[in-house]
């Protein structure tokens, strides 16, 4: 069955004016969707960039704050600084380790003194500031900021 036979069977014939109107409406809707997608993608990149900058600033400030407590092995001060930083809504968790990877401060105090085990999918960083994105077991996308303190023991 051809298109003309279908139109004749239904008894509906669209005028040229209606066809042009539908074409223009379709093109406008497609343009709006494409433009919205491009703008949304751009905003998402800008927000991720700002979030990364903020996370790096928080990590640097926390690194500077805990430096003296790490050097003097002052665990109560380390845990207090860690607890203060964990109160911020954008921070999921904070771990302070020494160069050997032994935990000096952790939200779970039973892990203090043991080697820190990185979440699966999070690469080792060495002695450099690292920003990585990985998917947590819960399915959430997490962007950890790892900031090594150069003077830490």
Account of the protein in words:
The chain is mainly α and 153 residues long. The protein is built from three helices and six strands, in the order αααββββββ. The mean pLDDT is 78.
Number of helices: 3
* E-strand count: 6
Biggest beta sheet summary = 2 strands, antiparallel
The proportion of strand residues reads 5-15%
The pLDDT mean sits at 78
* Order of secondary-structure elements: HHHEEEEEE
Rg computed from alpha carbons, rounded to a whole number of angstroms: 28 Å
Derived structural class: mainly alpha
What are its keywords?
mainly alpha, two-stranded antiparallel ribbon, rod-shaped, 6 strands
Blueprint (SSEs and pairs):
Elements: H1 3-10, H2 16-71, H3 75-86, E1 96-97, E2 103-105, E3 130-131, E4 134-135, E5 141-142, E6 145-146
Antiparallel strand pairs: 1-2, 3-6, 4-5
Concise synopsis of the structure shown:
The protein has 153 residues and is mostly helical. The protein has 3 helices and 6 strands.
């Amino acid at each position: 069955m051809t298109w003309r036979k279908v139109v004749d069977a239904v008894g509906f014939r669209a005028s040229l004016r209606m066809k042009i109107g539908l074409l223009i409406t379709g093109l406008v809707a497609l343009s709006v969707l494409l433009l919205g997608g491009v703008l949304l993608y751009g905003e998402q990149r800008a927000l991720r960039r700002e979030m990364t900058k903020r996370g790096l600033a928080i990590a640097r400030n926390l690194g500077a704050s805990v430096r003296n407590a790490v050097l003097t092995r002052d665990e109560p001060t380390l845990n207090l600084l860690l607890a203060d930083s964990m109160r911020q809504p954008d921070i999921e968790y904070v771990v302070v380790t020494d160069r050997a990877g032994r935990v000096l401060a952790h939200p779970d105090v039973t892990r203090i003194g043991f080697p820190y085990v990185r979440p699966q999918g999070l690469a080792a960083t060495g002695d450099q500031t690292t920003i990585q994105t990985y998917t947590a077991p819960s399915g959430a996308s997490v962007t950890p900021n790892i900031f090594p303190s150069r003077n830490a023991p």
